[in-house]
Design a protein that fits this description.
With 358 residues, this protein is α+β, with helices and mostly antiparallel strands. The chain folds into 2 domains: 49 residues; 260 residues, no CATH class. The chain contains 5 helices and 22 strands. A 9-stranded antiparallel sheet has the order 15-14-18-16-17-3-2-1-22. The chain has a 5-stranded antiparallel sheet with strand order 4-21-6-19-20, with helices on one face. Strand 16 and strand 17 form a beta hairpin. Helix 1 packs antiparallel against helix 5.
Length: 358
């Protein structure tokens, strides 16, 4: 009897260890997550992390196969390419569900009298209207690579990385056999075939607010925003750190670094339009917004019934998941449960075999 009690006590301790291990290790990492699924096929994960420095990170995972998902880049307008507006203004104007800042744009810094219109840097298309080309001589070449690849979301909802084609010397053609529908580009491709491909430059090594867009092999689009320039609150990431996070935590096969710094903005309408992150758009002041050249709007159906936010430990699952959705966690849990059941059955059988029991 005493031996049986010892076995059961030890087993109970082991099962408890399995249950608390994910949250304990997340605590050591100094991170917590808040996950919500406000729309069909859309998961928003917001993290507050303390290592390697204070960071606030927001990731939107979009299942491109989900019903009702569609996109729209800022359309052509004004005397240049587009009319400038904040990402939140664009979300409201389009009556979308999510929006994120996109292209680098010129003129920047804005002149004393801002004309309110912008030239985008790199390939751009809105609902099939291709209005900005690839460029082999981008401005600010310390940050933007010549002919930086883009990402296209076709009329069928499938996304793909696109590269400049040789057919059009003006830069409007792509190498891939795709119909340009909603296309955007940034400074460079930072994840390629699951590997980090960040250029080693002083610009990329800076800690700054960052925006990126990624694509998984399973056709999930990843929108990532990192707050920065907010000492002891969120101090930003390098581009390499951003790429490693996209490839590792998010499972991105390919990813682009978009305009960052004061342009970095993520907005959502759930249901009222609001900012998700804390941009530093005007003179690096937290909570201020910058009028920018382009944003990408996401349209999605509301969840029925809506799944509210839930706090979960970070680090054990990718966007949209918690530690308890991690396959490794459940494998250990099931093994512990089977061990408990087997040991309990073994003890019961031993007791039934003892003399004097009926």
């Amino acid at each position: 009897m005493k031996a049986d009690r010892v076995r059961l006590t030890a087993l109970g301790a082991f099962v408890a260890f399995v249950l608390v291990l994910p949250s304990a290790s997340a605590g050591l990492a100094g991170a917590s997550e808040r996950v919500s699924r406000p729309f069909v096929g859309v998961t928003l994960t917001s993290s507050v992390e303390t290592l390697p420095r204070p960071i606030r990170l927001h990731i939107v995972d979009i299942d491109l196969a989900a019903p009702g998902i569609r996109f729209r880049l800022t359309p052509r307008g004004g005397p240049l390419h587009t009319i400038k507006q904040t990402t939140l203004e664009y979300l409201k104007q389009q009556r979308g569900q999510v929006a994120i800042n996109a292209h680098f744009f010129e003129p920047w810094p804005a002149p004393g009298v801002d004309p309110g219109t912008a030239c985008l840097v790199g390939i751009a298309a809105s609902d099939g209207d291709v209005y900005s080309p690839f460029t082999d001589k981008p401005p600010k070449r310390y940050a933007i690579r010549p002919n930086a690849p883009g990402l296209n979301i076709g009329p069928n909802g499938r996304a793909a990385i696109i590269h400049r084609g040789a057919a059009d010397p003006n830069g409007y053609a792509v190498r891939e056999t795709v119909a340009l529908h909603n296309a955007l580009s940034g400074s460079e491709q930072i994840v390629t075939d699951g590997k980090v491909t960040v250029a080693d430059s002083a610009w990329n090594r800076q800690l700054a607010p960052r925006t990126a867009i990624g694509l998984t092999a399973g056709q999930h689009l990843i929108l990532a925003v990192v707050d920065g320039r907010q000492r002891a609150v969120s101090e930003g990431m390098t581009v390499r750190e951003l790429a490693e996070m996209l490839a590792g935590r998010c499972g991105a096969a390919d990813a682009l670094s978009l305009d960052g710094g004061g342009s970095t903005t993520l907005a959502i309408a759930d249901p009222a339009p609001r900012l998700v992150n804390v941009p530093v758009g005007v003179n690096d002041a937290p909570g201020t917004q910058r009028a920018i050249g382009s944003s990408l709007a996401v349209f999605a159906r509301p969840c029925e019934p809506a799944t509210g936010p839930q706090s979960v430990p970070a680090g054990a699952a990718g966007p949209g998941g918690s530690c308890m959705s991690c396959p490794a966690y459940w494998a250990v849990f099931v093994a512990a449960a089977c061990l408990a059941a087997g040991l309990a059955l073994h003890i019961r059988r031993r007791r039934l075999r003892r003399p004097g029991r009926s």
